[in-house]
Each structure stands twice: as structure tokens, then as C-alpha cells.
TrEMBL record:
PANTHER family: PRESTALK A DIFFERENTIATION PROTEIN A (PTHR43162:SF1), PTHR43162
Domain NmrA-like residues, every copy: 2-248
Family annotation (SUPFAM superfamilies): NAD(P)-binding Rossmann-fold domains
Pfam families from the UniProt entry: NmrA
Protein name: NAD(P)-dependent oxidoreductase
Taxonomic superkingdom: Bacteria
Length: 292
């Protein structure tokens, strides 16, 4: 069963499993989204454990992914939701779980890194076999409003430090390999793109793709936190996010790994590939900027 089936990884995983002729079911919250996927689906919500238990009937392998670590009432619902899903999977007779985590998940870390570590530990103690995918930052983050200024320039918080961004279809391809071939049991895979790129590199490539100059607007981590607080995000969340951004700015995602190639037998997609695939969306997102 594929959870997060309508998300940035899940949609590609569903497409790939269909192409491969694998028997699978997608979990969706919204029936119309399930119909649009064009595969077997079950309607369920991580907030409704009974619906997850019902959806898991007959399932042997589970792809576990859900929305990120945005807080609700000061807590990250992802932790409770995924732990509950792991317990339900165990009860349903699932044998293997492929979970999307995050690079540098570790005890005591802030936000998603700490949250994923807690879920990883729960999974490892569950008695199920597991594979952990620990991706670098997603290229898809550049399709979100927070990546650009209102006038279409790149918000730059990592200074000169390169980041080995990964394209979500590559994460999906790794998950498909682990779900359909019996290997990678109880292993952790750090997934990166083929190159680590600085914000200046990214701005250069985006400029070339859009055929106009996109500059870097320096927004150091503490300034980013201040801006997020002024937009209404809880202060503790904005401050914790600044800590994570500082780690990346210090080079925590500056290296590449061979894991995508090892698992899929082909190289990971480049940022240029990503820009080509998403040019209309990127153009719309940055449209308010006058050509330089
Ligand atoms: N962004 C990054 O750079 C990055 C890097 C490393 C790791 N990660 C991790 O990647 C994961 C995915 O993050 P994302 O923001 O990219 O999410 P996403 O995959 O784009 O979307 C989340 C998916 O989860 C589903 N979902 C959300 N709440 C649910 C619920 N209560 N019950 C059932 N399904 C639910 C959504 O379904 P609907 O269609 O119904 O909303 C959607 O399919 C997070 O754990 C994050 O920590 C992100």
C-alpha cells in the first residue's frame, strides 16, 4: 500500500508501480483523488486509525509517507500518525515498511529531523522489517511560494554552501525498487541528487530556464525566522527552523551519495531536468517579476 499517494513522491510512485504491473493499493483521504489516480485505492486518514486498519487488509508491504512537520497545538502530528500506522501495519500482517525520513534524522534534533528519528526508532522496534529513505532537500521545494520573493527572485538562506537537492521522482523510483524487489531490508539510504548546488548556481540555472535574470535575495536564517514569525508562524517553530537552516548553511547537505544509482541503476535527475519538467509552474510562480 502506498500512503501519501497524492503527494510529491506518491504520485510518481503510483505511476511507476502501475507501469511495472505491480499489484498495489493507494491510500487517499479524498475519494475523487483516488479515482484520479487510476489504481485500486482505499479511503483513509492517519487521524482515523480504524480507516488505516481497514485499508491495510491483505497488504504485505507498506510505503509510509505523510505531510511534513508543521505543528498543530505545539506538536508534530506526523509522529503520532506514523507510529499509529506502523502499529496497525504490524497487526495487519505487513512484513516490510519503506519509510520516507530525512537526512540527519537524529535524537534531539529540531522539527522533522527529531520527529523522523522518533518514528524510525518506533519502526525499528516494531518487529517489522524496514528500509529508511533519508532524502536531501527536495527540488520540489522550489515550486512552493516560500522559495521566491513576491517579485520573483530566489530567497537565499544557505549563502555559499551547496545543497545536493533531489528530485522527488527519484525518491519514488528508489521506493519502487525496495517495494518490488526483496532487498534493502533493515538498511538506511541517504538519497541525493547528482550535484550539490549553491543558491547562486540555482539562480543561474533558473535564470537560463526562464530567460530572465533571477538574483539571490540574501535572507540569513535569523532574518528568515523573523519573517516567518511576522507571517503568524509560532515563534518556537520559526526559531527551530532557523536552526535547521543554519545546519544546511554550514554544509550538512553538501555531499552527494550513489544511493539513487545503486537502487535504480540509473543516475539521479539534475536540477536542469527538474526545471525543464516544471517550467510552466515555475514561470507562473515567479510571474510578477518584470524582465530584467
Ligand atoms: N521537503 C523537503 O525538502 C523534505 C526533505 C526530506 C524529507 N522530507 C519529508 O518528506 C515528507 C513529505 O513531505 P511533503 O511536504 O513533500 O508532503 P507530500 O508528499 O507532498 O504530501 C503529503 C501526502 O500525505 C497525505 N496526507 C497528509 N495528511 C494525511 C492524513 N492525515 N492522512 C492520510 N494522508 C495524509 C497527503 O494527502 P492529501 O492529498 O489528502 O493532502 C499527501 O498525499 C515529510 O515527512 C518531510 O519531513 C521533506
Amino acid at each position: 500500500m502506498v500512503t501519501g499517494a497524492t503527494g510529491s513522491i506518491g504520485t510518481h510512485l503510483v505511476r511507476r508501480l502501475r507501469q511495472d504491473g505491480a499489484a498495489f493499493r493507494a491510500l487517499v483521504r479524498d475519494e475523487s483523488k483516488g479515482r484520479a489516480l487510476g489504481c485500486d485505492f482505499a479511503v483513509g486518514d492517519f487521524e482515523d486509525p480504524g480507516s488505516i486498519a481497514a485499508a491495510l487488509d491483505g497488504v504485505d508491504r507498506l510505503f509510509l509517507n505523510s505531510a511534513g512537520a508543521l505543528p498543530v497545538d505545539g506538536a508534530q502530528p506526523m509522529i503520532r500518525q506514523q507510529k499509529t500506522a506502523i502499529d496497525a501495519a504490524h497487526r495487519a500482517g505487513v512484513t516490510h515498511v519503506v519509510k520516507v525520513s530525512v537526512w540527519h534524522a537524529r535524537q534531539g534534533a529540531k522539527l522533522s529531523q527529531g520527529a523522523h528519528w522518533e518514528i524510525e526508532e518506533h519502526l525499528k522496534a516494531s518487529g517489522l522489517s524496514w528500509s529508511l529513505l533519508q532524502p536531501a532537500g527536495y527540488m520540489q521545494n522550489f515550486l512552493g511560494a516560500g522559495a521566491f520573493t513576491p517579485d520573483g527572485h530566489l530567497i537565499s538562506s544557505y549563502a555559499d554552501s551547496p545543497v545536493a537537492y533531489i528530485d522527488c521522482p527519484d525518491i519514488a523510483a528508489c521506493a519502487a525498487a525496495l517495494l518490488t524487489r526483496p532487498h534493502g531490508e533493515n538498511e538506511t539510504f541517504i538519497l541525493t541528487g547528482p550535484q550539490a548546488l549553491t543558491d547562486a548556481d540555482l539562480a543561474g540555472q533558473i535564470s537560463a530556464a526562464l530567460r530572465r535574470t533571477v538574483t539571490c535575495v540574501e535572507t540569513p536564517p535569523d532574518a528568515l525566522a523573523t519573517a516567518l514569525k511576522s507571517q503568524g508562524l509560532p515563534p518556537w517553530f520559526a526559531d527551530d527552523l532557523a536552526v535547521l537552516v543554519k545546519e544546511v548553511a554550514a554544509g550538512s547537505q553538501a555531499t552527494t551519495t550513489t544511493a539513487v544509482h545503486d537502487l535504480t541503476r540509473r543516475p539521479p535527475r539534475t536540477f536542469e531536468d527538474f526545471l525543464t519538467a516544471h517550467l510552466p509552474a515555475l514561470r507562473a510562480l515567479t510571474a510578477s517579476s518584470a524582465p530584467a
